[in-house]
Design goal:
By secondary structure, the chain is of the alpha+beta class. Helix content is 62%, strand content 9%. α2 packs across α3. The two termini are 19 Å apart.
Length: 202
């Protein structure tokens, strides 16, 4: 999706409806600075307000994502292209999240090990050792928590039996046995309990 093109389209449609940035922002319950960022191509509207934005601008979601008016004869073709683009964007975002998970995991583990090593082999008062070990353990716990949250939020899990893709509850992800990012869980669709692998898109 071309943010700059979408931004110019939003500005054009807003002016067609006789709305200022301030008025549009007020009706959407946001700041006019946010509207300015859209129109300058620096960001996109949140998904939660897109339907209301389209209503106010008298356009549809297809046209918003295209950044232009879409003729009815080209509607299906444009929809397919947009869906493919959105799928690519989702896959890229999930890849970045899972890469971040690896970085956080390594950093938390290294921090913990370094703290334990220093506390064990460097001469220091006993209370300092305790503090260092506690700090290392806390960093590790925070890192693991964030890694689990990222793994839960990024992408989906795919059942090897029925092929359905779904997002399990956070508790299920935490409690499940795992090999890498595949976790042994019960499929909410077919009830099969097996190692469900992580996939980036539906």
């Amino acid at each position: 999706m071309n943010q700059e093109k979408i931004g110019k389209f939003i500005a054009s449609c807003r002016k067609e409806q006789g709305l200022t940035q301030a008025v549009l922002a007020e009706r959407l319950g946001i700041t006019d600075r946010a509207v300015s960022k859209w129109e300058n191509g620096r960001s996109l509207p949140d998904a939660s307000i897109m339907p209301e934005l389209c209503d106010l601008l008298k356009i549809n979601l297809n046209e918003l994502f295209s950044g232009e008016r879409v003729a009815m004869e080209n509607y299906n073709e444009t929809s397919d292209a947009l869906l493919l683009e959105m799928k690519k964007q989702e896959e890229l975002a999930n890849k970045k999240l899972l890469s971040l998970e690896v970085v956080i995991g390594y950093m938390a583990s290294i921090t913990f090990l370094v703290m334990i090593f220093v506390a064990s082999y460097v001469d220091m008062p006993a209370w300092v050792r305790v503090v260092m070990i506690a700090v290392g353990a806390s960093a590790f716990a925070v890192g693991v928590t964030n890694c689990l949250k990222i793994e839960h939020d990024a992408g989906y899990y795919e059942c090897p039996e029925c092929g359905e893709k779904y997002v399990p509850e956070m508790k299920t992800v935490v409690m499940a046995r795992h090999i890498g990012t595949s976790r042994k869980m019960k499929c909410p669709y077919c009830g099969n309990k097996a190692y469900h692998k992580k996939v980036l898109t539906k």
